[in-house]
Amino acid sequence: MILINLLPHRELARKRRKDLFNVGLGLAAVTGITLAVVVFLWFQTQMSAQRDTNQILQAEIRKLDNQIKDIAGLEAEIAALRARQQAVEDLQADRNTPVYLLTELVRQLPDGVYINSMRQDGQNVTLQGVAQSNERVSELLRNLANNSPWLSRPDLVEIVAGTVTLAPRDQRRVANFNIRVALVRPTEANKAKLAAQKNLPARAAAVPASQQAK
To answer: Is 0.85 topped by the overall pTM?
Structure first.
């Protein structure tokens, strides 16, 4: 007996394939949405954790900024205290400055040089005097520049030829001079002395033995 299928099997197969495709498409859409939700939730978790970390970092940064401000304030106070201490030390040291000045002038004045007046303005001293010759004035300038730890940078402001009457018939030519010199503070002078003392052994070692024997 021969059986003949008169049903539209092609249409049924096409419908079956379409249904399978729709089911697969639905599953893919559900899977995609699920993955998207999972990824979104993961990103939200990471962003929330990063925000918490940023807030912690910002709080620590604010703490550090406050500490830095406190340190800067302390450094400013320390600098101010050091400046006051230095000012007090300078004032205490400057009390003996006239003594050092007069002592150095007595040591450095060559023979034939006389000081008529002396004026101090801060650390600058102006000397006016009389010398027997211009050579005596030059010698005084060399002494002030090279031999005195308390006086430095001598500057010859003016030198004028003049005469001095020692007797009715005895007149001598002299040189009237005006010199400006800087007065070294005692603290700076002591530092220069210490540096010079430290350099003495090095200079002695640099001299050849043959010259030392001589």
So the answer is: no
Instruction: Tell me the torsion sign for CA atoms 187, 189, 192, 193.
Output: negative
Widest distance between CA atoms in the chain: 180
Q: Which amino acid is at 61?
A: I
Using alpha carbons only, what angle is made at residue 14 by residues 10 and 16, rounded to the nearest 5 degrees?
115
| Size of the chain, expressed as the number of residues it contains | 214
Asked if residue 169 lies in contact with residue 120, where contact means CB atoms within 8 angstroms, the answer is no
- Residue 169 neighbours by CB under 8 Å, 6+ apart: none
- Residue 94: CB partners within 8 Å, gap ≥ 6? 185, 186
User: Do residues 150 and 100 make contact, with C-beta atoms less than 8 angstroms apart?
Assistant: yes
Distance CA 192, CA 190 (A): 5
**Residue 93's pLDDT band (cuts 50, 70, 90):** low
Whole-number Å distance between alpha carbons of 116 and 99: 18
CB 177 within 8 A of CB 154: no
Beta bridge partners of 119: 126
Q: Where are the alpha helices (DSSP H) in the chain?
A: 9-94, 97-108, 134-146, 186-206, 209-213
Within 8 A by CB and 6+ apart from 97, the residues are 183, 185, 186
Return the percentage of the chain with pLDDT > 70, whole number: 79
Predicted confidence band of residue 5 (pLDDT cuts 50, 70, 90): low
- pLDDT tier at 197 (50, 70, 90 boundaries)? low
